[in-house]
Design goal:
This protein has 5 helices and 6 strands, in the order H-E-E-E-H-E-E-H-E-H-H. A hairpin with a 4-residue loop joins strand 1 and strand 2. The chain has a 4-stranded antiparallel β-sheet, sandwiched between helices. The protein has a domain at 32-122: Transposase IS200-like (Alpha-Beta Plaits, 2-Layer Sandwich). The longest helix is centred in the middle third of the chain and has 19 residues, at 81-99. Helix content is 40%, strand content 22%. The protein is an alpha+beta fold and 147 residues long. The termini are far apart.
């Protein structure tokens, strides 16, 4: 990618120019395989996407596995990665329980996600590699565990 194209991808506002792109990963509480069924994987993904869109967090890539999630996101320079992660985890759990009330049998207090998390900042060079990794999660996690 040419330098000129990179400059076109930076976020520009009145007082800042830059890019904040992140790879996040988090697990379900107790690592329960809550998303073994495809319908629950799709519901979890939809809940995460909704939480992101409500807070202007751009999801570049997402993969919901049976007991954990990977996302590659882009956020405004006005929001911290910690805040973005809290928004994605907190709101997605709220939305998930609203649409799948029986999940409260496993998580009566409404804590879908564990406290643990992974976050790594990405630049343009790493973005394609990480997007590919997230896109191919099933291949990466056959018999392997993360976090």
């Amino acid at each position: 990618m040419e330098t000129q194209n990179l400059m076109n991808e930076y976020e520009k506002s009145n007082h800042s120019v830059g890019l904040s792109m992140w790879h996040f990963e988090w697990c379900t509480k107790y690592r329960y395989k809550m998303f073994k069924k495809e319908e629950y994987q799709k519901l979890a993904e939809a809940c995460i996407r909704r939480a992101a869109s409500l807070h202007k967090i751009t999801i570049i890539e997402i993969s919901v596995m049976p007991e954990h999630v990977h996302v590659v996101i882009r956020i405004s320079l006005n929001i911290s990665p910690a805040k973005a992660l809290n928004i994605l985890k907190g709101l997605s759990a709220k939305f998930f329980f609203e649409h799948h009330e029986r999940a409260r049998l496993r998580y009566p207090r409404g804590h879908l996600w564990s406290k643990g998390k992974f976050a790594a900042s990405l630049g343009f060079v790493e973005a394609d590699v990480v997007k590919n990794y997230v896109r191919n999660q099933e291949k990466h996690h056959l018999g392997n565990h993360t976090l």
